[in-house]
Design brief:
globular; mainly alpha
Length: 126
């Protein structure tokens, strides 16, 4: 197999695992927290941001095969987190007149996402 074929395979395998994990984490969060906010998407995006922050210093350094970032970062976390789901749910909250909930969801997604990524980075960048 060529290097490009291996790279695509790693992204695909990581993507399959990430999308399955997203499904299960989303359903669990919705079951535990209810539906007042899109808790499932918030849970995957916040945990994905923290995981990306933690993995980046470990996998994007000299000597680490780039294929690991392709599998875990691009494929796995790329399919685990969901900007499209966030945008769709924001539109739904605004369209249904739940502007306060939309503002809370926006704040939590952006602020806690950035904080999670920074915390993940701090844990592993040492």
């Amino acid at each position: 197999m060529t290097a490009m074929t291996w790279a695509l395979l790693l992204v695909a395998l990581g993507g399959a695992a990430g999308s399955l994990a997203r499904h299960f984490v989303t359903r669990l969060a919705e079951r535990l927290a209810g539906d007042r906010l899109p808790w499932g998407t918030l849970a995957v995006n916040l945990s994905g941001a923290a995981a990306a922050g933690a993995l980046a210093p470990l996998l994007l350094q000299d000597g680490v095969p780039p294929s690991l970032w392709l599998a875990f970062g691009v494929g796995g976390l790329g399919s685990f987190t969901t900007v499209s789901g966030f945008a769709f749910e924001m539109r739904g909250l605004v369209a249904s007149g739940r502007r306060c909930a939309a503002g809370i969801y926006l704040f939590l997604s952006l602020f806690l996402g950035l904080a999670g990524a920074a915390a993940g980075w701090a844990l592993t960048a040492g």
